[in-house]
UniProtKB/TrEMBL annotation:
Residues annotated as domain CobQ/CobB/MinD/ParA nucleotide binding: 7-192
Phylogenetic lineage: Bacteria, Bacillati, Bacillota, Clostridia, Eubacteriales
Entry's Gene Ontology molecular function annotations: ATP binding; cobyrinic acid a,c-diamide synthase activity
Cofactor(s) for this UniProt protein: Mg(2+)
Every CobB/CobQ-like glutamine amidotransferase domain range: 251-438
Pathway linked to the protein: Cofactor biosynthesis; adenosylcobalamin biosynthesis; cob(II)yrinate a,c-diamide from sirohydrochlorin (anaerobic route): step 10/10
GO biological-process terms attached to the record: cobalamin biosynthetic process
Catalyses which reaction(s): cob(II)yrinate + 2 L-glutamine + 2 ATP + 2 H2O = cob(II)yrinate a,c diamide + 2 L-glutamate + 2 ADP + 2 phosphate + 2 H(+)
Record protein name field: Cobyrinate a,c-diamide synthase
Amino acid sequence: MPNFPRLMIAGTHSGAGKTTVATAIMAMLSASGMRVQPYKVGPDYIDPGFHQVATGRISRNLDTFFLGEDGIKEVFTRSAMGADISIIEGVMGLYDGIGSTDEGSSARVARLLQCPVVLVMDARSMARSAAAVVWGYANLPGGIPLAGVILNRVGSPRHLAILTEAIECKTGVPVLGGILRDHELHLPERHLGLVPSVENSDWPKIMQMLGRRVACGVSGERLVNLARSAPGLEARQQIFAVEPGTTVQLGIIRDKAFNFYYQDGLDLLAAMGAELAQCSALKDRSLPGELDGLYIGGGFPEMFMEQLSANTTFIDDLRRRVAGGMPVYAECGGLMYLCDTVTDFTGRRLKGAGILPAHCRMEKKRAALGYVEAKSLRDNVLVNNGAELRGHEFHYSTVTGEGLIPAFTLRKPGGAVGRPDGHACNNVLATYLHIHFAGLPLAARGLLNSCARYSRLKKKVKI
């Protein structure tokens, strides 16, 4: 049975510092010469970008809601091949999942992968009470054992000594190190969370600094030894056991404005026969070559709307191809971009691509967050009418327009009440729904089938 040294860095709660600590550990181990494969529990797009900067390897999402138990194992083992160690960053608090269940939680993923868990705890303003917190996490009925604790935002070496003695004496859980409070030891944030790594060319230097800071307080050798204690793990290939279909050229808009994609989803599209052609709506004057379809992922178009609007040659080419029948699938930020107009956070009304008969507006408060179950209201470029999908949404914008034709009804998992979402008309599907193609092979195949039909149509027209 294959052996994959692995370790999960989880947190007591959101804001405990697990992303900073996990990414710094990845950077520290990478600097030591190890090949580190990073992962993120849950649907987050932004944290994996920091992981990639820290390790030089593409981070993968491990989400039980999207992938299921077998899918988690397959995605993990497939990408851990060739790595010396795998570091998995958790999501929210260790036991937080959907509602009061463990669906989607870090604990569930750790149990599936038989993965040692290190808990990051914000130790500010705590002493002996820290032991009670650790004891609770280690002894929750139905919970998982803790391999160790890393204390974050410690006030001083004496504070660390007090915390260590209390935790180890009262709980038996080893303290693997402590990180002194440092206002520079954090990652910048904005309305959807952390600022993506693609927007700052200084991130490699910042990651090196984070790795050095954490190495001063946390033993890399102890972490590696814990990771190597994980048992062997194997998985049967199911998601990627596919036969390639007709070869199609699928465009992917990927730049600072649009960079929310799941790599395993892109890998599955490629395995099914897609040749992926990346382009930029910010810099390129047109779409690539003879595309058979276009996938526009999410991101932060609202932060670059002036530049996107100014690239009129790219927009003209996009509009021409859409009018000619090219399939387009746009998620969240992609939906926003396709609108006639977009009002940004400052109140400026800017031109969008003008493909959807709608106006997008950035709101002061979050409009939606969380996992959803979707049902297709009509045939579209992904699925047929009535198909059911799983996804998530996270946005501060709203889209309105009398000409919109809703694509889906969305409801919370297990909920009874749904609400309309998106727009589906002919060869265009635009939605706030983010999906993971590796968890929805039917949708992946559906997109490529739409591309293949368009490809055949183009050839007939040329003849």
